[in-house]
Design a protein that fits this description.
The protein has ten helices and two strands. The chain is mainly α. A hairpin with a 2-residue loop joins strand 1 and strand 2.
Length: 292
């Protein structure tokens, strides 16, 4: 019986050996290998800085191009709605398929203690809180802008309101579309060219500056340290919540319940197709990234 127990203990130890080794060795940093990989990736990161800077600048400048009456970029165009649905699918898949799993991996790493990180689903909780926080901030900002706009004298626009004068009475029939109201409030916010240039610059430089900071600290950064894993996991969870909220609320909800979308079956079908197409392409990139 004792011989059988010794054999069983030996087999049990051999089975658990890879698990024990992986749990103890994953938290150490292979400095030589990381340094060589960093040197090889610096060129790609520099290319990423330039490409992200250019694409961000072009993307943030598109709303200003609409003001010069480019039909292709006008929000009332059906093709514009299809592009927004495709972009929403990309953003939605980025939050669910790319960012959220990485956050879960960081916060459930064996390098972290089980208490509290293994006792509570921090990934979903932080994503939920960030989505609610984004909703609260957007509601407060929209409410402030709406109150500021309503406190000023409003010019009567024949395209937006139907005025019927019966004797001395003035009857106004405003639009019921929340999206129209939002666009009306935003359109009344007049910014100087200097202010717009500053906003475009800040938006365009945010991601490139983040990549530059990552390059600067790459030699001293230990991605497997508990502090790095916690900070990375929490930030990724918050980012996932914001991306999911933006895709579902800011991009999809306003368009998919719009009267123009609901009364046009072809446009509705095309928007759903482009939404699935964008989400499918972004999910496919996650699969190709894991294989590489």
């Amino acid at each position: 019986m004792s011989k059988f127990q010794s054999y069983s203990n030996t087999i049990f130890f051999l089975i658990l050996l890879p698990v024990l080794v992986s749990s103890t060795c994953t938290c150490t940093r292979k400095q030589d290998e990381d340094r060589n990989q960093t040197k090889q990736l610096i060129l790609y990161k520099l290319v990423a800085i330039v490409s992200v800077l250019v694409s961000s600048a072009l993307g943030v400048c598109l709303p200003f191009l609409v003001k010069v009456n480019i039909p292709f970029l006008h929000p009332d165009n059906d093709f514009y709605l299809l592009i927004k649905a495709f972009a929403a699918g990309v953003i939605l898949a980025t939050g669910f398929v790319h960012v959220l799993p990485d956050a879960q991996e960081s916060l459930t790493s064996p390098c972290l203690s089980q208490k509290p990180w293994g006792k509570f689903p921090f990934t979903g909780f932080v994503a939920m809180v960030s989505a609610i926080g984004t909703l609260t901030m957007e509601a407060l900002a929209t409410g402030y802008n709406k109150r500021s706009a309503l406190s000023k004298p409003q010019p009567v626009d024949g395209d937006e309101e139907t005025n019927e004068v019966h004797g001395s009475a003035l009857v106004l029939e405003p639009s019921n579309s929340s999206d129209t109201i939002r666009n009306r409030i935003i359109s009344q916010a007049q910014y100087s060219h200097k202010t717009m240039a500053v906003m475009v610059g800040f938006f365009s430089l945010t991601s490139p500056c983040g990549i530059g900071v990552g390059i600067a600290i790459s030699n001293s950064y230990n991605e497997n340290s508990p502090t790095s894993l916690v900070v990375e996991g929490l930030l990724l969870s918050a980012s996932a919540g914001i991306l999911i909220y933006m895709a579902l609320v800011d991009l999809l909800a306003a368009d998919f319940i719009n009267a123009k979308m609901l009364t046009n079956p072809k446009l509705q079908l095309g928007a759903n197709f482009t939404l699935l197409l964008g989400a499918g392409f972004m999910s496919l990139l996650a699969k190709l990234g894991d294989e590489s």
